[in-house]
Amino acid sequence: MQEQLQNAGCGEVLVRWKTRNGALFEQSGYIEVNCDAGWTKEQGTGSVGVVCRDNTGTYRGAYFNILERVMSPLVAEVCALREGLHFAWRMNYNSIELETDSKQLIEMLQGKMGIQVEVEVLVVDICHLAFHMEVKFQHVK
Q1: Whether pLDDT at 78 is above 60
Q2: Are 74 and 119 in contact (CB under 8 A)?
Q3: Which of 6, 31, 51, 83 has its CA 20 to 30 A from that of 91?
Q4: What CATH number labels 2-17+28-139?
Q5: Taking the model in full, what pTM does it have?
Q6: Which residues form a coiled coil (predicted)?
Q7: What is the distance between the alpha carbons of residues 108 and 115, in angstroms, rounded to a whole number?
Q8: Number of C-alpha atoms within 13 angstroms, CB side, residue 14?
Q9: CB of 29 closer than 8 Å to CB of 4
Q10: Where are the domains of the chain?
């Protein structure tokens, strides 16, 4: 699967921890796209939120969605990253730092762990879209 990700042009994968004081990312010209998800086991639903900022911290857009039939927190996190990437594409942000707090997802994108079957199609979709943009995937706490 790692070979498929590389062939799909999944982009550069980085790991970075942000400080609690909101330290800004370094690269000018990039849009920071922060993605997060919520999940309810009892209802089998999830939610995704996306916030975009430039390198000065200026707000550049946001997105929110409710998800139906979500199997796990991992599925919700992958959906959040995918929807964040799609939102950035629609906003014409072609150079982005796509952030998630899901270390497991970043490790799958890095090839440090296998891609779980429940999210394989979504991860491949993320990589195909990322191929058409300049994307840096980042883990944030």
Answers
A1: yes
A2: yes
A3: 6
A4: 3.30.420.10
A5: 0.80
A6: none
A7: 5
A8: 14
A9: no
A10: 2-17+28-139
